[in-house]
Each structure stands twice: as structure tokens, then as C-alpha cells.
Amino acid sequence: MFAHLQRLRLWLLAWAALSLLSGMYIARGELTRQQDVFDTNARIVHRLLSQQVVQHDAILATLALLHGGNAADRPEQRLPALYGQIAAAAHRGANETWPSPELANAEAESLRLKRAVLADVDLQKGTYQLVLAAQPDSYALTIALRNMVPWAEWPMKPDTSPVQVRLDLGAKTYTVQAGRPFAMGDAGWTFEARKVLAAESQPFEVVSRLHVPWSALPWTYMLISAGTIALALLRGRMLVQQRTQQRREEERQRVGQRTRLNTLGELAAGMAHEINQPLTAILANTQAASRLLDDAEPDLTAARSAMQMAVQQARRASDVVGRLRRTVERPGSAAAVQSVDLHAACQHALYLLEPELQRSRCTPTLTVDGTPFEVQADPVALEQIIHNLLTNALQAMEQVPLQQRALQLVLSHTATHGVLRVQDTGPGIPPDALGKVFEPFFSTREGGLGLGLSLCESLAQGMGAHLSAANLPNQGAEFTLQMPLATPAP
Amino acid sequence: MTAPLSPLIHLIDDDEAVRSSLALLISTVGLRVQPWADPQTFLKTFDRESIGAIVLDVRMPGISGLTVLDMLKEQKVDQPVIMLTGHGTIDMCRRAFKSGAAEFLEKPVDDERLLEALQTSVRQHVQSRQRNQADRVTRQRYAQLSEREREVLGLIVSGLTNKEIGRALNVSPRTIETHRANLFAKLEIDALAQLVRQYAALVDEDTAA
């Protein structure tokens, strides 16, 4: 029981470890995928916003090039209508001044740097101005960031996307896309991408951030995988248990067989000793007596006593044999005779021998000549006889090619007897061995004990049946078992 | 036939019938038999000096005949041992011969084979005892020799003449002759051939040591 629990714990541990590994693998895959998507989106966002701000530079430069002309015909006044993000456009003529000093400072800076310059950046409101100094007129654009984002080309859904996108300038920041809120240090994974916009005049830094909390991991897949692993392990455990069971069964059979052989060996050794001792004494006594009688003046008393001792020892040997017979004999074996369906008995024996039959690729045929019948027999002994005869036939046919193997059981009956014929297509019985096959310790098989058929005959005689052997005209041997019918045919 | 000093056969078998019948059989050729039912008693009390042989059953309760055989060899018992067994295996046979058994016979044993084995064994035992006896005497005599005499004996055995020995030992051949005469007297030897035959082995053993 303890060992069983131990094993169960081992399986559980294996399951936990495998589930953890697969979970980690799935989570890592998902995180990598999310990071890839995030990185791509961040790059697109940077490109889109850069394109927008570069446009502002281009617009200002164009205004400067178109300079002057008709003051009433100010082209920049039409810009807000063309570009959504341009809230207003202003210019300063040759003898005008900017409404605020900041714009004036920016113009001076722009003159120095020879490019547009930021002024009046108010990221809270989301506006800034871009000033370009030019001759005769300088220009300033007021940009509304809210309208600058090209939502139509935006790679994410601004309302639902968990990604935060901001534009930073120094400490100031403008939120382009709110995303999923999180605090630094929250459990989970955070991806971040920072890149300054590709316009020297508007050096806003695009900051994209995505936080993936634990809860966003693909738990469903992970659970499904853990479940699948559990099922696979259960199946494996079942297979292992089956294998163990099978191996144990095989081992048990082998041990049983060995025990039987050992018992048999022990029996033989014991018998040999028990019989050998009196035989030794008999031989020594008779030979001593014969030597004594050969003497010129035979010591008849000694010779006679030696002969008497020999007689005693012969009795002792016969007692040993008698005792052995009584030990082995099963009491009341003759009383077990009853009505038995011979056909069913044959089927049962074939069923038990199924594995052996398959191994020797042999399909047996069981045929009944005439009407069905029942015989008088000891069911156990009958089963043993049929089993032995079939095994014998299979062993005989091991010596012939597969396609020649055929095992036939033929049932028939006479007026008084039921007959079972077991016919094989093996090499048959050598003519000189035909009379000896039922003798104990006679075997034509290498390593055979020669007890199988002898036992069959004893069993048959014990229940009033008769067993005989013959060779078939073409090939193979036939064993015939005759038993009295249970109800003699009318 | 059964003279008091005839060889003595020790017969060890736990089966009374076997013991008495074999004893009777052995006695028909004039050998004395001492039967033993118990191998332990036999080991403790049998006469180790007696001339003869031991007949030992392999299968005995308490102690196997093979174990008894090993103990006999350990105790340097020199009587030849004939093993008897009811069902001898090749392995058992090999073990018995390895432990120095003189013969290995199966029960029931034929009289001819047993008696012949016994007679051969007894003959061999007598010879080995005689050899040992002679050996002992030879050693005793050899021990009486002086250092110089042993040296001279060694050179005689290697086939040198008196003159050559004198040269080798830096003494006159006359002195060697004296040594030689003493040697012959002490070892009770008449002829040179006898000297070489009996003492060559001892000299070799001595110089090797």
C-alpha cells in the first residue's frame, strides 16, 4: 500500500513537472508573440507620427518660398482647412512684430539654426507652435496634436488597445493612446519602445509601452495542456500497470514451472536414493554369497545369511515402490465419472490452447460425425487428456513446415462408445516406437520426460476409457480416445 | 586368510544394510573391514597409521561424504579414499577427484569393480608408505654429513672425479678420497650408482634451499 502511494506520488510529481514545463513554454511563446506585435506597432506608430511632423516642416518651407506677393492673398490662411492638425497659421511681415515674445525668440533661433523651431509647447493642451524665420515674411503654425494622429492608418484600436503611446519632450508629455493603465513594478512583463521623431525641428520622443499582467497569460491553453498531459500520463500508467501485471504473470508461470521441475528432480533423487540403498545391499550380499560358495570349503552359514539379507533388502525396495505409489495415487479418482459433453470439452481445451495454436500458426478443425452425444468421464481427467494430446500434436508438428500443419479433432460414436480422434500432420510415430509411446519415460522428443502420454493412458484407464495411437496413411499420427457413452444409443 | 596385520578397510555408510553387506563382500577377499555408521565418530577415532583404504558414501545425513573427504585431505590422511554414490553427477565426480578421491563408484556397485578398486588402493597405499619410510631413513643419514662432506657429495652426484673435485675445492685428491670413504660409511652405501640414485634428489633439494 505504501509503495502504491509512493508510486502515485511519483506520477503526480511527473504530471506537475510536465504541466509546469508546458505552461512555461506556452506562456513564453505567447509573450514572444505579443512582443513581436508590440515592436511592429511601435515602429509603425513612430513612422506615422514622423511622416506627420516632417510634413509641417515642408509646409513652412513652402510658405517661405511662396513669400510675399499679395498680402490679401495669404495662402497660409487656407492651411487649417486643408490640414486638420494645423489649428492656425500666422505670419510676420517685414515691419511687423510677433504678438508674443516667445514667437520672436523662436524666430531668432530659427534664423540662427536655419530651420523651423518649436515655440509655446503646451502638451497638456496638446498644442505647440512651429516657427520658421524667412524673408520677407516669417511664418508660424499652431499644431493640435489631437488631430495630428492619422487614426485611419493607426495599427491599433485606440479605444481598446492595451498599448500606451505618448509623445515626450523633456519633462512634458502628451498621451496619444491611453492603453491599459499600470504602475511600474506591477507583476508581469513590460515592453517599452522609445524613439525620437524623425524631424529635427520637432524632437518629440515616441514612447510606446505595453504591460502584460499574469492574468493576460493564455491560461486556457495552459490548462488544456495540463489536462492533456494528465490524460497521457494516466494512459501511460495504465499501460505500465498492464505490462507489470503481464510480466508478473509470466514470472509466476515460470517460477511455477521451475518449482514443478525442481520437485520432480527432488522426487527422482529421493527415489534413486531410497531404491539404490537396498539395491546396493542386495547386489553386495548376493555377490558376497556367490564368492563364499565358490570357496573350496564354502562357509554355508555366512552365504545363507547373506542371501537372507538380500531377500530382506529386496522387500525393502518393493516397500519403497509401494509407498511411492500410494503417495502419488489420488484417492477416489474412479468415483468422479459423470456425463460429459465431449464436444464442449474439446472446445474448452482448444480455447485454453489458443496462444499455443496461434504461435504455431495452426487452425484446428473440430468436426462431429453423426449425432451429438455425451460420454461417461471424469471431466478433469478428460480435459487433461485432451490438453495433453493437443499439446503433443502441436509439438510433433513443429518439425514440419507451416503450410503442412493441420490439426483435426474428429468426434464420432459407436453403439456403446464415444470416440475422439486427434490427428496431426507431424512426422508420425516411428514404427519401432509405436508400441512404447504409452510407457513411462519413453520419449521421442529431445528433453522430453516421457510422462505425458503415460499419464494420459493412466487417466484414461482410471475412468474406463481407452487410448490408442496409430500412424495416418499419408502423414502424421492419430490418437484415439474411446469412452463409454453416457446414454447408449438406441 | 584374515591375518592380524592385513590391510584394514574403513567403510562409512549410514545405512546398516548397505554397510553390513559391503563389509561382507569386502571380507570375502581377505581384507579386514571396520564399518562406521557415523562419519564424525570415524573422523575422531579411526587409526590413521593403519594400512588400507577408506570407502565413503557421498549421501549421509548431517555431513556429506565430500565434506568428509575434504577434511581427510586437510588432516593429511594418506589412505586412498573410494567414494560411493547413489546418483553421481559429473560435477560431484569432478569435485571428488579434485579433493583427491582415488575412485568414484556408483551404487549399486559391482563386486569386481569395488574389490579391484580396493586392492589397487591398498597396493598403492602400501607402496607410498614404504617410499615414505625409505625417504625418512635417507634423510636421517644425510643429516649426519658434515658441511664439507655434503659439498663433496654434491660434486660426486654431478659426475666429477676425485681429481676434479680436489681441484674445485682446492684440496688434494687424497683428502677427497677420505671424505668419500666417510660419506659411503655414513650413508651406508656400497656403490656409486646407489649413492646417486638415493641421494641425488636430496642434494638438489639442499642446494636449492
TrEMBL record, chain A:
CDD domains tied to this protein: HisKA
Domain Histidine kinase: 270-487
Annotated EC: 2.7.13.3
UniProt cross-references to SMART domains, sorted A to Z: HATPase_c, HisKA
Name of the top EC class for this enzyme: transferase
Pfam families: HATPase_c, HisKA
GO MF term list: ATP binding; phosphorelay sensor kinase activity
Catalytic activity: ATP + protein L-histidine = ADP + protein N-phospho-L-histidine
Coiled coil regions, renumbered to chain: none
Key words, A-Z: ATP-binding, Kinase, Nucleotide-binding, Phosphoprotein, Transferase, Two-component regulatory system
Name the record gives this protein: histidine kinase
UniProtKB/TrEMBL annotation, chain B:
Record keywords, A-Z: DNA-binding, Phosphoprotein, Transcription, Transcription regulation
Coiled-coil residue windows: none
Gene3D superfamilies: 3.40.50.2300, Winged helix-like DNA-binding domain superfamily/Winged helix DNA-binding domain
A Pfam cross-reference name: Response_reg
Residue(s) carrying 4-aspartylphosphate: 57
InterPro entries tied to this protein: CheY-like_superfamily (IPR011006), Sig_transdc_resp-reg_C-effctor (IPR016032), Sig_transdc_resp-reg_receiver (IPR001789), Tscrpt_reg_LuxR_C (IPR000792), WH-like_DNA-bd_sf (IPR036388)
Alphabetical list of SMART domains matching this protein: HTH_LUXR, REC
Domain HTH luxR-type, first and last residues per copy: 138-203
Molecular-function GO terms, alphabetical: DNA binding
GO annotation (BP), single: regulation of DNA-templated transcription
Domain Response regulatory, first and last residues per copy: 8-122
Protein's name according to its UniProt entry: Response regulator transcription factor
Source species of the chain: Rhodoferax aquaticus
